[in-house]
Specification:
The protein is 38% helix and 23% strand. By secondary structure, it is of the alpha+beta class. Bound molecules: tetrahydrodeoxyuridine.
Length: 159
Amino acid sequence: MTLKSAATAVRENAHAPYSNFKVGAAIRTASGTVYQGCNVENVAYPEGTCAEAGAIAAMCAAGEREIAEVYVIAECPAPVPPCGGCRQKIAEFAAGDVVVTLATTDGIEKSMTVADLLPGAFDASFIELGAGIFILCELLLGAIIDGNVGNGRVLGFFG
Ligand code: THU
């Protein structure tokens, strides 16, 4: 099954009665398995989900975490650009050089990398730094409260 045929087929199952804009997405993982997703809208509009989110949920439900390639298709004049939230969701599971192909049902395709789609992405390295600083502050505060600052123990601990 090609990613194009998988995305085209699942698009037919989109639930898009409010926008009438059906989207299909297909993901190939590192194992070679293909996962599909379509947009699922809701009368409470913000509750709707994008096609990419559906494909990612299917991938995670199957126990996979590593996206190798993505294909997204919709009926529009130019290849459909994933929304900002979906770019972040894709980046969670894909390296920057992973190729994302955006397509129209008329056969126009545009391939980009995840890094092109989401330059300057917020990734785990930022919260790791944040967590490190938090732990450092906690240690210092704890030492001050315990009265261990000033007698060399704290400075000794940090080298
Ligand atoms: N949509 C997607 O499923 N993926 C995208 O990348 C762009 C937008 C959906 C959400 C909504 O159901 C409809 O398209 C119109 O915004």
